[in-house]
Write a structure and sequence with these properties.
The chain is α/β, with parallel strands linked by helices. The chain has 15 helices and 18 strands.
């Protein structure tokens, strides 16, 4: 191929950006379009991570540097499956990579999960992160709240619920989110983990950050704070587990204060059994679990009920099916072999690849997507000789297609306009930035010529 390799990456979150970065560093000349359904880039970083996440700014800066590369073009507000289909992309690109991530909550199959005030964590995260398609209002009338889960998403949700709204003013939260959190009646947030403290999926930095929140007391309940042989081995061999367990142990030994307005409770070895209530949530019933010695747990047949008026289920994310591609509903992934998308017969769909959570499931931290992207890109480059060249590889041909279909796509220059606008909104309020939420406003600011 005498020209640059034309590649479309569907999904401009970390997985897609890392894949683009690795491609630009290869010996193969490339010309890459990053397409995203949202008018703004960054995916999970903008719409899936708590605004007070301690490392979010550094990750955004790193992604920004990649997307400024001349080989990479951002095309936002392009809804794959609606505005363009796979056949369209195959006509305009030599290869297509899907990095659409995981966008919805995994179901928790217990009685009462569908009661009013029982929420999937993703719903709440989208609200406080200003996702354009999320509701603008969120009722926080409950005084006692349960969060089910033992990962960083559960920790984020519990922290935001227990935090003082004014402490979030230094972040980019939209004003409607600030007002909603300011009106919150929450006094106690109970986080329930099915396994023990050594089996949690928290990261030490996010856990220890809790100890720096004004007006929040951390309460680690000794019931269920148990370690088995596998736990002790993990503490000896894994510094992360050692730090997490020691941090929780230190909190468990503290004297409780009487004057803090909010408390965040940790309950271990408590498996969710039923969300109790008739017309709305009234409590959470959990089964007391015990460790088996290998880190797994079994139920004891003993149950406890904690009165709560809202439940947030943070038991994992799940990807949505991708138009024109096979989908494994059990794993929530596109069937693939090292990132090569497989058709229903198990054969590689020539020129079609995947990376990130849609490839391997919603596990691991953001940094893990780099190694994931490297595998996919190495396989893509190994397949170059088998590619069918695009029929219309000219860089502007896809823009003509979008114009013909009246798609109001946004660009990297448009994102920079929106970025500057959000920072100016923040400056007027003495904050770093304020996120613009309505989709139509994002597009309008990003496309001033229209």
């Amino acid at each position: 191929m005498t020209r640059a390799l034309r590649v479309a990456i569907v999904g401009a979150g970390p997985a897609g950006v890392y894949a683009a970065d690795i491609l630009t560093k290869s010996e193969t000349p490339v010309d890459i379009d990053l397409l995203d359904r949202m008018p703004a880039p960054y995916g999970l970083i903008r719409y899936g991570v708590a605004p007070d996440h301690p490392r979010i700014k550094g990750i955004v800066n790193a992604l920004h540097r990649v997307m400024e590369k001349p080989e990479i073009r951002f095309l936002g507000n392009v809804d794959y499956g609606v505005d363009v289909k796979l056949d369209d992309l195959r006509r305009h690109y030599d290869a297509v990579i899907f990095s659409t991530g995981a966008d919805k909550d995994r179901e928790l199959d217990i009685p009462g999960a569908d009661l009013p005030q029982s929420h999937g964590a993703a719903e709440f995260v989208y609200w406080y992160d200003g996702y354009p398609e999320a509701p603008r209002d969120w009722t926080l009338e409950a005084e006692q709240v349960a969060v089910i889960g033992a990962g960083n998403v559960a920790l984020d949700v519990a922290r935001v619920l227990a935090k003082q709204a004014d402490d979030l003013l230094r972040t980019e939260i939209p004003d409607n989110v600030y007002q909603g959190l300011k009106a919150s009646k929450v006094t106690d947030v109970h986080l329930f983990a099915r396994r023990g403290p050594a089996q949690t999926k928290f990261t030490p930095l996010e856990l220890r950050e809790l100890d720096h929140q004004d007006g929040m007391e951390l309460v680690v309940h000794p019931e269920g704070f148990e370690l088995d042989e596998a736990s002790e081995e993990a503490i000896r061999t894994n510094n992360q587990v050692k730090t997490i367990v020691k941090t929780l142990q230190d909190w468990a030994l503290r004297d409780r204060k009487d004057d803090t307005p909010r408390r965040l409770h940790f309950h271990f070895l408590r498996g969710p059994a039923e969300i109790v209530g008739t017309d709305r949530v009234e409590g959470l019933r959990t089964e007391v679990m015990e460790l088996n010695g290998d880190g797994s747990v079994r139920g004891t047949g003993e149950f406890e009920t904690v009165p709560v008026q809202a439940v947030y289920r943070a038991v994992g994310y799940l990807s949505s099916p991708v138009a024109d591609l096979p989908f494994d509903h059990g794993t929530g992934t596109v069937p693939n072999d090292g990132g090569r998308v497989l058709d229903l017969d198990g054969e590689h769909m020539q020129g079609v690849y995947t990376t990130g959570w849609i490839k391997r499931g919603p596990v691991g931290l953001i940094g893990h997507t780099k190694g994931d992207a490297l595998e996919t890109i190495n396989n893509l480059l190994a397949d170059l000789d088998s590619f069918t060249p695009a029929e219309q590889p000219e860089r502007d041909s896809v823009l003509r297609l979008l114009d013909e279909r009246a798609v109001e796509y946004t660009t990297w220059d448009g994102w920079n306009l929106l970025d500057a606008h959000e920072k100016s909104l923040g400056e007027a309020l003495g904050r770093e930035r304020v996120k613009v939420v309505p989709r139509e406003d994002m597009v309008r600011i990003s496309r001033p010529e229209s």
